[in-house]
Each structure stands twice: as structure tokens, then as C-alpha cells.
Design goal:
The structure is a homodimer. Chain A is built from seven helices and six strands. Chain A has about 190 residues and is α/β, with parallel strands linked by helices. At the A-B interface, α3 and α4 of A face β4, α3 and α4 of B.
Chain lengths: ~190, ~190
Amino acid sequence: MDELKFVTSNPHKFREAETILEEYGIEVKWVNLKYPELQADTLEEVVLHSLRWLKKKIEEPFFIEDAGLFIHSLKGFPGPYSSYVFRTIGNEGILRLMKGIKEREATFRSVIGLVIEDKLYTFRGETQGYIADSARGTLWGFDPIFIPKDMGGLTYAELGMRKNLVSHRRKSLELMASWFSRKVKKA
Amino acid sequence: MDELKFVTSNPHKFREAETILEEYGIEVKWVNLKYPELQADTLEEVVLHSLRWLKKKIEEPFFIEDAGLFIHSLKGFPGPYSSYVFRTIGNEGILRLMKGIKEREATFRSVIGLVIEDKLYTFRGETQGYIADSARGTLWGFDPIFIPKDMGGLTYAELGMRKNLVSHRRKSLELMASWFSRKVKKA
């Protein structure tokens, strides 16, 4: 029972989850599959809709994860559409939008959706930070332009493996892992 | 049989469709309803997914419409996410992204999805044009920053009712209307 399936077509996400969940004695199996995602203003809505679709195809327990960068002065843009926005206007586009704007607060948010015993659960992890003035570090998504708080002003991308210590995804994974471990112990 | 339902929560869209379809002797009934929309890179995918959901709730024949502004130098951004992008970064954000960019070509695209006799159809209308240097005219969505070709350099917003003569939505509505009229005549 200490095994969970992670449905994702993104190998980066799978590896990050594998590393973190190992610390909790949870083995992760990769299900490499794309699934429909809803247009919605919150990650929770997106995730719950996808879980309902996947429930009919995949044997539980399994989870999915969706993440987004919410920039406060841009009313949360790019938010749940981060992946599309990254593929089109990219980091350069975000930096253009933020040029000359002093209020640079942003939240990197990760929401996990889990199906277990025919029930749906969500877990939210958040990391507060700022949008950098320029892109720094090796590319993965918006990592080169996001500076998490209290990490010496380095971007996610510059932090390398140390990103895993403070990442939004670590937080949502830990919430799920500790909840899941308690549940399994009880059973 | 010369009656079609238009499912939309947007009164602007309903009025535009009503005016245009009247010319074809088609009466439009407004079904004011929100429905789920998929995250996808094409409007056709978004529309077909919504139709499948609505088919179970609404008696045919009915149609829906989705539109997007595709800016060529931004790899099609904001495309199918135009409504979210408008609500967050708005026209000001688009103008910032386009600042100093010479290649300003853009396509305003409208896709109609129609359900009739248990079948799904899509109709695409497009208007080619440019992104303006500044917003001009009364606000509705991206209308103040889109200049259609061959209309004297005025934006959609400045054209007022004359927009209906060249709009992407007129084109998709006309395609559907003429197809529908032929079908009804045959029957």
C-alpha cells in the first residue's frame, strides 16, 4: 500500500516527486500520460476536473500535480495558464510585462490531486517570492525569473538541487505524503 | 426548424449573432449558461469538448462560439486564453509585450460549434489585421488594439457598428448560417 502512481507527462516533475516521497518511504510509479485540463481560475478546479476524468481510466491510488506562477501586480497572471504562457511569450514576455513595475511579489503554487478509496483530495503548497529583473540560471519554465524569499536572492534556477528544499512542489508533496502515511498507518 | 439556440453568458456576443443571423431568416434564442472549457491550443478543440458536455444538457439544435486573438510574433499568444489574459494583463499588457516589435500581424479568430441531428460541426471565421500602438475606441475586450486590414487603420473599437461588417464572428456566423439554411431547405 506504500505505493502511489504519479500521472504526468513531465519527467522533471516525476523525478522531483520521486526524490521527495522517498524520504517518506513512499514509492512512486510513473504513469506517463496526458489528460484533459479545464480552463479555470484556480489550480484546484483544474486538478479536480482532471481527476474525475482519470478516475475512469487509472487504478487508484494515484495523484496528479499542477503548478502555476501567480504574479500579484498582474492579477495572478499567468496563474493556471503558466505552461501555455511559458511556451508562447516565455520568460522574456514576463520580464517585459514587469519592466518598471516596483511591486514584484509573486507566488509559486503547486496543487496535488489524489484519488484514494474513491475519494478526491487536494493539497496546496506555496512559495512566496519575487520576479527577478532578468533571467538567471539554467532553464526550466519560469525558474530563472523566480526568486524565493530568504534564499540569498538567488533564483530557483540558480539554486539547482537546493530548490527542492524550498519549492512549492516540495510543500504540496509533503502535505500529501504526511497525510497519506498517517492514513496507511491507521489502516 | 429555422430556430437555433445560442448558448453563451455574454450578452455582447448574443446581440452580434442575433443581428447577423436575422439576415439569413434564422431566429436565435438565448440560452444564458456557462459551460466548462478545455485548456487546448486550438479553439476547435475547446469548442468540441464543450459541445460534448452541453449535448447531455441542452436540446439541439444549438451552437456556441469561442474567439481568440492570435498575435503572430508572440507565437499565437493569447490565443484560446484571450478571455483570461484580457481579465489579467489586459490591453495594456499586450501593448507592453509588443513595444518596439515591428512585426505586428495578428489574426482574430472565431470558431462556432454546432450540434444538429446528434452531430458536431465547427465553422471558423478569421479577420487579419495588426496590433495598434495604443488603445483607441470604446472598450470591449481587445477591440481597441486590433486594426483589421483595409478599414482605414481604425481599430475594431473605433469602427463601432461597422465592425460587424468585417468581424471574425460575422464570418463564422455566415459560414454556419449558409450551411444551416441549405440543410433546412433540403430537408
